[in-house]
């Protein structure tokens, strides 16, 4: 069973529009409402691909009930601590060109000390039954910035691989625990690379830096449709074709993490792992919902991934 942690999940509402007119009304052509948050998305995709996943974190209010029910209907096991307030709504205004979308994120409810302790207790219990841990997304108010480091340490002490996709100091602190994979956010590339993000070299330097910290997979998104992977078998630039892309919602990065978890679980080699993870990302970017169409659909994209070995 794979544990996914989303401490600040969301209901994602996506409005598909022809245009956004600032200072006036815009009519949506259609609307989608989905459970969201990075770990939640990974749990959904893992389950769709035949892996059992438990989604953990905090839920609140009507949005919290909606997420819990949607996950259960999708056969994802849920283990959330219910808190006061309302789980946030993240609004995505999507235009025909996915590069022109706009999003608005709510903050989400504050977590108090008692709920935090309850979550930690549940997490430690779950770790005993888990084979891997995925940690993703923003930290809600009330959670100390050491949280991801602490969660990663607990998992590592139990011998589990940890996959982290977060940002800011909580992310940087978690790197000290040497997770199996760290997905570097755009906002941290300059800091990790120690130089301005003005060329591919900066992305590579950030991925190397992460790998040199003892993290087997240092992954950095390179512009929108590529990723740099620093591994002990070399550094790779992987790119995907973008012609069929529809989604503005950034689930491709969650699909990539899902692919890495599965690639490791199935003992794939370095290049096969990258291809598989990238194929998961391509597949997820071809539709606006969270429903990966299955393994065969992902495998159909394997040859759309171009892989360049940089060193
Ligand atoms: O505010 P965070 O936690 O960084 O990101 C939240 C979020 O953008 O991440 C997911 C996509 O990765 C969405 O489902 C969700 O709305």
TrEMBL record:
This is 1-phosphofructokinase family hexose kinase. CDD domains: FruK_PfkB_like. Signal peptide: none annotated. The chain crosses the membrane at residues 42-62. The keyword Magnesium does not apply. GO terms for molecular function: ATP binding; phosphofructokinase activity. Residues 17-282 form the Carbohydrate kinase PfkB domain. It comes from the Bacteria. The keyword Transmembrane helix applies. GO terms for cellular component: cytosol. Belongs to the carbohydrate kinase PfkB family. Pfam families: PfkB. Coiled coil: none annotated. Keywords: ATP-binding, Kinase, Membrane, Nucleotide-binding, Transferase, Transmembrane, Transmembrane helix.
């Amino acid at each position: 069973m794979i544990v996914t942690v989303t401490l600040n999940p969301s209901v994602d509402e996506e409005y598909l529009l022809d245009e956004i007119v600032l200072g006036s009304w815009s009519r949506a052509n259609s609307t989608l409402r989905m459970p969201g948050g990075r770990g939640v998305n990974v749990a959904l995709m893992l389950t769709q691909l035949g892996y059992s996943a438990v989604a953990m974190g905090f839920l609140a209010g009507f949005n919290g009930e909606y997420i819990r029910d949607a996950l259960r209907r999708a056969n994802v096991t849920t283990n959330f601590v219910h808190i006061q307030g309302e789980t946030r709504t993240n609004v995505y205004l999507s235009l025909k060109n996915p590069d022109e979308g706009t999003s608005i994120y709510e903050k989400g409810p504050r977590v108090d000390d008692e709920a935090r302790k309850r979550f930690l207790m549940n997490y430690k219990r779950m770790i005993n039954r888990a084979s891997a841990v995925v940690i993703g997304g923003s930290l809600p108010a009330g959670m100390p910035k050491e949280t991801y480091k602490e969660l990663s340490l607990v998992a590592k002490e139990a011998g589990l691989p940890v996959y982290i996709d977060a940002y800011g100091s909580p992310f940087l602190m978690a790197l000290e625990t040497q997770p199996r994979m760290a997905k570097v956010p755009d906002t941290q590339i300059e800091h990790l690379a120690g130089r301005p993000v003005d060329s591919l070299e900066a992305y590579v330097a950030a991925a190397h830096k992460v790998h040199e910290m003892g993290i087997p997979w240092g992954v950095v998104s390179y512009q929108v449709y590529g990723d740099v992977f620093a591994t002990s078998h070399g550094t790779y630039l992987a790119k995907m074709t973008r012609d069929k892309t529809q989604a503005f919602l950034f689930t491709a990065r969650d699909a990539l993490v899902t692919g890495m978890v599965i690639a490791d679980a199935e003992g794939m080699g370095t290049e096969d792992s990258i291809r598989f993870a990238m194929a998961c990302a391509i597949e997820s970017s071809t539709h606006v919902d969270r429903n990966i169409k299955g393994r065969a659909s992902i495998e159909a994209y394997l040859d759309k991934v171009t892989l360049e070995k940089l060193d």
